[in-house]
Amino acid sequence: MTENLAQTVPWQSCAITEIVQQTPSIKSFFFRLSKPFAHIAGQHVDVRLTAPDGYSAMRSYSIASWAISSPTIELAIERLPDGEVSQFFHDVAAIGDEIELRGPLGGHFLWPEPAIDPVLLIGAGSGLVPLMAMIRQRRALAQVVPTALLLSARTAEDVLFSEELHSIEISDPMFVFALAITRDQPVRASDYARRIDGVMVQEVLARLYRKPTQVFICGSNSFVNVATDGALLAGLDPSIIKTERYGG
Asked: For the whole prediction, is pTM greater than 0.70?
C-alpha cells in the first residue's frame, strides 16, 4: 500500500490487553481495537507514539494474528538496540495503555488465496511474524497446500512461537519446519548449525517435493539480502520471491 493510500486509513486508539514474553528479545502485545477490522495474513499496522511535548514516532509492525475480523490483534515486537519505539514497548508499555494504530496496510506481501501450490517461507527474529500469520491462516482454514518454513535464530531459546510451530510440524505432514541455528548447536538432526545459504534452501525445497510458486522472505535488511541470495542460488525464479524488511 502506498503512503498516500495509508493516509486514508484512520487512526484509532487501542488498549493493550495482554503482554507475553515470547523470547528474551521479543514480546507479544495484544491490542483491543476500538474499530475492529478484517485483514489478510501478511498485512501490517502503523503504530504511532506521541510524547507530551508533541514529538511523535511511527513504526510499522506485522500482524501475527491470522486473518479474521476480531476485536483483538497480536503484534510481536522485537527489542532493537536503536529502536526507540520497540524500546518503549519493552521498557515502558503496560497492560491498559492506550496506543494509536492504523490498518490493516499492505497489498504486496500476502498469503495467496486460493492457496494451492507449494509455498516457501524464510524468516529470522521478528521477521517470522507475518509468516506466522500465514501459517495460522493456513491451519485455521484447513488448507493442505505444501508449505515449508526455514527460520533463522541465534539459539533454540530465540525461536519465536517455538512450541506452536513444533506442534504444527508434528500434526501436519504437509508442513516442513527447519531451523538454522547460528550461535549454538541445533537440538534436532534435521536442523542446521549455520547461516542460511543456497545449499540449505535446496535441501528444504527437497522436503517439499515440488518447487514453490511463491516465496516470502522477512527479516532485517542484511538477513533478507542473504536469504534472497540463497533462494536464487537454489534455482528459484526471482519473480516469485517477495520480501519484507523490518526496522525499529
From this structure: yes
